[in-house]
Amino acid sequence: MTIAPQLNLSREALEPYWMPFTANRAFKANPRLMIAAKGMYYTTAEGRQVLDAMAGLWCVNAGHGQQRITDAIREQAGHLDYVSSFQMGHPIAFKAAERIAGLTPAGMDHVFFVNSGSEAVDTALKIARAYHRMRGEGHRTRLIGRAKGYHGMGFGGLSVAGIGRHRRDFGPLLPDVAHLPHTYSREHQAFSRGQPDWGAHLADELEAIAQINDPSTIAAVIVEPVTGSGGVLPPPKGYLERLRAICDKYGILLIFDEVITGYGRLGTPFGSAALGVTPDIITCAKGMTNGAVPMGGVIASDKVYDAFMAGPEGAVELMHGYTYSGHPLACAAAIASIDVYEEQDIFANCARASARWEDQAHSLQGEPHVVDVRNIGLLAAIEIAPKPGEPGGRALAAGNICFEAGVLVRTAGDALVLSPPLIITDGEIDRIFETIRGAVRALA
Fold first, then answer.
1. Residues 6+ apart with CB under 8 A from 343
2. Is 403 left (phi over 0), alpha (psi -120 to 50) or beta?
3. Cβ atoms of residues 59 and 291 within 8 Å
4. What is the pLDDT of residue 38?
5. How many domains does the chain have?
6. Is the full-model pTM beyond 0.90?
7. At what angle do helices 426-442 and 346-362 cross, to 10 degrees?
8. Which UniProt keyword terms apply here (predicted)?
9. How much is the average pLDDT of 330-348?
10. Does residue 224 sit within a domain?
11. Long-range contact pairs involving 21-29 (C-beta distance under 8 Å, separation at least 24)
């Protein structure tokens, strides 16, 4: 089956769409088009079946085409397509928030709806600053991010993020931002399984930043529990615990960006539960609706929420929001996604599959050009040695070989990153890593 002629996808027909994070000219000269998806597989415009080892873009946690989610969106669209969440609402938004709060760590009971992970991060940063202002500490404005961190593409998220190529073209960014070092050292951590033993001391850099800048000026620290787009970097054992302790010591809010680790990726509803550390604020998106409708959220602790509720009852407590906050279709998709996760026991399947995933990933140690393997939950990165003067070239070539062999992986610098739907079977795990094995053996 091929639909390209039916869609008249000439170069001219492709030109109007300015694609994100894409080499537009190269893509439009040789487009890679998907026309359908079901379960673990995409169907290309040429009719090939491609195993999705990225869950779309870290987001289709329950697999593609879950009928319950599709039906919920269709039914909601026919019943109530839109209503503002400004000074009015609809019941399904409150039900969605209740269901989400039922998955969160204890004391994380309040959900502010947005439309993406980028909006969730910018919202969380604004809430953090406003929280301190509500408490009479409006001088706390400084934000702390981390090298290699990815927090979306809004100006707030870019400012606290730590991937230079993403930031380069858009400065100047927000002032009053500092960055922790990243937690990765190949010398000390190569081929670690899960959380590496080395590196907890790197959290103490927050102490140094606090002393340089005066801890009473710091509003919040934001980190991904597991660095995702920066290369799948699990936190060293004890690292997040030390960040939590330092934040508590100085009255700093701790924000976990769980856009990737939320909704089962580590075998628990949120990564904070799997890692045993509870932040003050969680950002989420992606698996929130299984990727079916754009949606994001900021989950606030009772402490944070209650600080906003101390003023006059008739006053707007947080002067912030979006036209599509709590959109009815997104809320329907969120509720249906949680139903699917629970009824199909998908988080437990992730936990079960993680052991085989880890073993198969680390079976690549010793293969040509493979210099590191990192994994946690159903996440992994295969680090590939670049050719001199060609950073990322080998990884990109390996990714293309995998795609031609029917497996979709993603490249991030010199790494192949993997994040499959959580419904994955043992046979599909084996196929992914055997395909990567063949790809790295084929590299020059």
1. none
2. alpha
3. yes
4. 98
5. 2
6. yes
7. 30
8. Aminotransferase, Pyridoxal phosphate, Transferase
9. 98
10. yes
11. none
The domain containing residue 237 runs over which residues?
69-343
Greatest CA separation for the chain: 68
Domain containing residue 111: CATH number: 3.40.640.10
Residue 41 pLDDT greater than 70, yes or no: yes
Q: Which amino acid type is present at position 157?
A: G
Q: Are 346 and 267 in contact (CB under 8 A)?
A: no
**Look-up of token digits 């140690």:** 365
In the predicted structure, residue 6 carries a pLDDT above the cut 80: no
Q: Torsion-angle region of residue 377: left (phi > 0), alpha (psi -120 to 50) or beta?
A: left
pLDDT of 122 above 50? yes
Contact indicator for 14, 383 with CB cutoff of 8 Å? no
Average pLDDT value for residue range 67-75: 98
**Residue type present at position 124:** A
- To the nearest 10 degrees (0 to 180), the angle between helices 205-213 and 239-250 is 20
> Angle, nearest 10°, between helix axes 328-343 and 346-362?
70
User: What are the structure tokens assigned to 379, written together?
Assistant: 């996440």
Indicate if 258 and 378 belong to the same structural domain: no
Q: What is the mean pLDDT of the chain?
A: 96
Task: Give the closest residue to 196 by CA, choosing from 206, 204, 184.
Answer: 184
Please tell me whether residues 316 and 384 are part of one structural domain: no
